[in-house]
Amino acid sequence: MAKLTKDELLAQFEEMTLIELAEFVSAFEEKFDVTAAAAAPVVVAGGAAGGAAEAVEEKDEFDVILTAAGDKKIQVIKVVRELTSLGLKEAKDLVDGTPKPVLEKVAKDAAEKAAEALKGAGASVEVK
Fold first, then answer.
1. What angle do CA 70, 73, 79 make, to 5 degrees?
2. CB neighbour class for 112 (10 Å; exposed up to 12, middle 13-18, buried from 19)
3. pLDDT in the model for residue 42
4. DSSP secondary structure letter of residue 43
5. Do the beta carbons of residue 118 and residue 76 sit within 8 Å?
6. Which of 77, 70, 75, 79 lies closest to 123, judged by CA?
C-alpha cells in the first residue's frame, strides 16, 4: 500500500464534510484507543518549593458587567436592549441597579464588542 504524504492527507480531509470528518475522528479514536483533546499549555513556575509545573487553562467565558451608566443613561439602556433580549423596563432596572452583569459566560470577542458598545454609549464597563 502506498504511503500518503501529509499534504495528500490534508487534501483528502479538505474534501470531506464536517459530518464525515467527525465520523472519521471517532473511528480513528476507536481504532487506536486515543482521544482528540486540545492540549493545555503548561507553565513552569519557579519558587521556594523548587519549581512546580502547573497546567494553566485559558479562560473562554467572560462576563460583561455594567459598573456605571454615565451621563447618557438613555443611550446605555438602548445598547443594553440591543445586547440582550430584555424589555425596556428590565433594561432600565438593570442600568439603574449598577453594578450588574449585562452578559454572562460569553465568548471573548462577543464580550469585547459588547463592552465597546456600552463604552461608546457612555457607560463604565468591566469584563471579567
1. 105
2. middle
3. 53
4. E
5. yes
6. 70
Helix, strand, coil fractions of the chain, as percent rounded to 5: 45, 20, 35
88-97 pLDDT, tens digit each: 888 888 888 8
Contact between residue 66 and residue 76 where contact means Cβ atoms under 8 Å apart: yes
Spell 75-84 as b/e; 16+ CB within 10 A means b.
bbbebbbebe
The whole-angstrom separation of Cα 46 and Cα 87 is 52
- Residue written as grid cell 470528518: 21
Please count the other Cβ atoms lying within 10 Å of the Cβ belonging to residue 14.
8
Q: Helix 108-120 vs helix 73-83: angle between axes, to the nearest 10 degrees?
A: 160
